[in-house]
Design goal:
By secondary structure, this protein is an alpha/beta fold. It has 16 helices and 19 strands. Strand 1, helix 1 and strand 2 form a beta-alpha-beta unit. Bound molecules: flavin-adenine dinucleotide.
Amino acid sequence: MNKQKRAVVIGGGLAGLSAAIKLQSEGFQTTLFEKNDYSGGKLKEVVLGTHHFDFGPNTITMPHVFRNVLIEAGENPDDYFQFIKLTTHTKNEFPDGSHLFFSSDKEEMTEELNRLDSYSAAKYNDYLNEVKKLYQLAENHFLNRTFSSWKDYLSLPLAKAMSSSRPLESLDRFHRRYFKDERIIKAFNRYATYIGSSPFNAPATFALIGHLEMGDGVYFTKGGNHQIALGFEKAAQKLGVDICKGEEVVKCIAKDGKIKAVETAEGKVLEAEAFVLNGDLLTQYPRLVEEKERPSLPDGKFNQYEPSISAFVILAALSERYNVHHHHVYFGDRTREEFETIFQDGQYGIDPTIYICTSSKTDPSLSPVGDNMFILVNAPPLANKGSAPESSMLEEKIYKLLSNRGLPIKDSLIQSETVSPRDIAKRFYAYRGALYGIASNRKKDTFLRPYNRSQDLSNLFFAGGSTHPGGGSPMVVLSGRNAARLIIEEF
Ligand SMILES: Cc1cc2nc3c(=O)[nH]c(=O)nc-3n(C[C@H](O)[C@H](O)[C@H](O)COP(=O)(O)OP(=O)(O)OC[C@H]3O[C@@H](n4cnc5c(N)ncnc54)[C@H](O)[C@@H]3O)c2cc1C
């Protein structure tokens, strides 16, 4: 009789859930350990009275990636979650009182650009064509594959793709080739924060995000984006994955160049043939695997990775409804300085850009009384020693800045919760509080992230924002699926 192979997934974020679904549906008896008492990781619902919020991903792109996880497992995604397309998805507001709507409708977007600058409007079609090409390159060469060792980089098509993806130009320079108005450039440059980086350093490769938002569209999940995590969990359980919530893995037991078993905080030991680490590999690999078992990644190497941007978040339950868009960005005056202050000085911007997501504008049932505002300012990741810049005054400062922009929300505040970079590090074991794992400010961190597989332990695989293809909810879902595929091919 053929014994069923066993797999263990450490961490129940989107990457871990997608790996578990794939492995179980391909015949592995899979156990997933999640230290928190819910799965979904950073994609998590927060409830304050009658107000429901998504902490984490508020902007969903590439809905097919989430749907495909379920389709590949033989499930109908419509039974688990439904996406709503937001055509005119974001309102960008500038300090001079002007604004620019972002829309995935080409004609509407061209008219919007034309209101601010006819040159940018005339170049918009060229911009769309170029960002589509960049996306197609990434899709063909990076997104659907794992990188297991340096040998994976030694292919001519890949080298060609890497050189055509504009690795030497910054995102800011790329945008300046198509747009002239500083407000428009500011709005497009904000895409760098989707990968936790600065537009003045991140390579133009990431202009592909423009294709996702402007070409493909921005989506919201009916009932809140956390429905994706709930749907994944439900499907995993239906397929037979054993999901152990509130159970933290504290050790990987290695023998003869392999992981033999994991041990939990309660002393449970579980053996398996293959292991996927979804917990941030930069914090969990050195913690769970003894240094002598991983000569390729000794302790000293981890600190060399630059963490992505972090965030200071206010979840504000309000008694009033305000005139804001589902996604609304209030730009500060000095955005270049803001990025420099964050990445070079490790401090908050003096006049920070404020992003607000009010999902009740699309789904009023999420906060029947008044608005549910998720308010985010970009934050520096924690310093190496773990210290954090002062954020205690930040909440008041944000209310004041918003009030100056005509949004006096403090007057109708029923309840609020704040989340700082230190909270993010603690709740998810995220490397220095990073939202997206490793930043893409340096070329090597963009293209040469840690591989999807341990170089020392042959049955240990990595999924999540700190590995390929990178951070952001669709990317980590791909990484989980890709890591599972590698295991299935090999075992
Ligand atoms: C405030 C914020 C806003 C964001 N906005 C967006 C957005 O608009 N769009 C977007 O696409 N993305 C966004 N992101 C990024 C997105 O949330 C992440 O890229 C993605 O959710 C990461 O998924 P993951 O599975 O890699 O990791 P995680 O979600 O961090 O999951 C890892 C899990 O592993 C668990 N774990 C770690 N160690 C152990 C252990 N030893 N034992 C057991 N369990 C363990 C952790 O508790 C965690 O649940 C945002 C993130 C944040 C925080």
